[in-house]
Write a structure and sequence with these properties.
Layout lengths: L1 H22 L9 H16 L5 H17 L13 H21 L9 H23 L2 H13 L3 H14 L4 H13 L5 H11 L4 H13 L3 H13 L5 H28 L1 H4 L20 H10 L11 H12 L2
Helix pairs in contact: 1-4, 2-3, 5-6, 6-7, 7-8, 8-9, 8-10, 9-10, 10-11, 11-12, 12-15
The structure holds heme C.
Length: about 325
């Protein structure tokens, strides 16, 4: 009886969701339709330009650049992935399945599987550890709480525990390292200081090297990232294959970046500034034209206005374009 009622409720909810668009207030007409038109035109042009040659190609590229400029900073919001009808069907299916399982197979509540029990137990353990640590405030209890929370990926609690531990024991290396890792996950710039201090104090802690490498990589310091990841492997880090992949990627990136920057310094910097800030030639840093690879290729190889053509090999050009995109 209960099951039938729940099923009915879910079915009605699903029906409601499916029909809502028909009854809801009309969406206001989307503001300036020009942007949408621009975007559509941009898409078509980018497709077409591949087949064009000579003067026509130039015109098309110029138009693409103009469109990118007009659209600067604006991209349509991602369409919502919640479509009412499939959602309704899904809900219906889930409800049916649930009722079926409940009535005919499992002698307990739906959802009460062994996995759920396991989680409940761990959550209970974590709660007990948290309560004790908050009550006693002793470093050992804080450490036990922080470790459990970190292990269960309950990161807010891990941060609370380790930060409190740091207040009590500022030299606790594990706390310094874990706080560094948690800061890194939240994108806080202090992460670097914490991780560097921790790895200096305890160079045998593999996980610290992993995150320090990630951090350096994010900052574009590939050499240091590679060194940190190598330390991770030396100290017995477990994610060997993944980290070896990361090292290879950083090596390739470092090579290309170096090459691209070299080409830029040799052939462009005199007019466009050492960091693309502009000079005789216009500013390139943040210039929307850089988003249109084809257009930049054309400008470099053929020149434009008072800018001379710069003959480059295919390889140099690709590395340069990569570098310009990173400006
Ligand atoms: C001798 C000076 C000089 C050199 C060298 C030079 N440029 Fe230019 N560049 C200019 C000038 C001047 C313009 C503006 C041309 C115009 O629109 O009339 C320009 C325009 C551009 C533009 C278009 C910018 C925009 O906003 O439309 C790009 C992209 C560009 N240069 C990239 C490069 C790259 C990449 C290199 C190196 C391979 C390079 N330039 C080398 C002087 C130079």
């Amino acid at each position: 009886m209960m099951a039938t009622l729940i099923f009915l409720a879910l079915f009605l909810l699903a029906l409601f969701l499916a029909l809502r668009p028909l009854f809801g207030p009309k969406e206001p007409f989307p503001e300036p339709p020009r942007r949408e038109e621009f975007l559509r035109e941009l898409e078509v042009l980018k497709e077409e330009v591949k087949a064009l040659e000579g003067e026509e190609k130039k015109l098309a590229l110029a138009r693409i650049v103009a469109l990118e400029r007009a659209l600067e900073g604006w991209r349509p919001p991602k369409p919502s992935s919640l479509r009412p009808l499939p959602l309704a069907i899904l809900l219906g299916a889930v409800a049916l399945l649930g009722v079926g399982l409940w009535q005919y197979t499992l002698p307990r509540l739906p959802g009460e599987t062994t996995v759920a029990v396991f989680r409940v137990e761990e959550a209970r353990e974590l709660r007990a550890l948290a309560e004790r640590a908050r009550r006693t405030g002793s470093p050992e209890d804080l450490l036990a709480w922080g470790r459990k929370a970190y292990e269960l990926e309950v990161y807010e609690q891990a941060a609370e525990a380790y930060l409190e531990l740091l207040r009590k024991e500022p030299t606790n290396v594990e706390a310094v390292r874990r706080v560094g890792i948690l800061f890194f996950m939240s994108g806080l710039p202090e992460a670097r200081l914490f991780l560097e201090i921790a790895q200096h104090a305890d160079p045998e802690a593999a996980e610290g090297w992993l995150f320090l490498g990630n951090l350096y990589f994010q900052e574009g310091r590939y050499g240091e990232a590679i060194a940190a990841w190598e330390r991770y492997l030396e100290t017995g880090g477990e994610a060997r294959e993944r980290v070896q992949g990361l090292i290879a990627m950083a090596r390739a990136q470092a090579q290309r970046g170096k090459d691209g920057r070299g080409v830029y310094q040799a052939h462009c910097a005199a007019c466009h500034g050492a960091a693309g800030e502009g000079g005789v030639g216009p500013r390139l840093k943040g210039n929307p034209v850089l988003r249109v690879r084809e257009a930049v290729r054309e400008i470099v190889l053929e020149g434009r206005g008072t800018m001379p053509a710069v003959p480059l090999s295919q390889e140099e050009l690709e590395a340069l374009l990569d570098y310009l995109e990173s400006l």
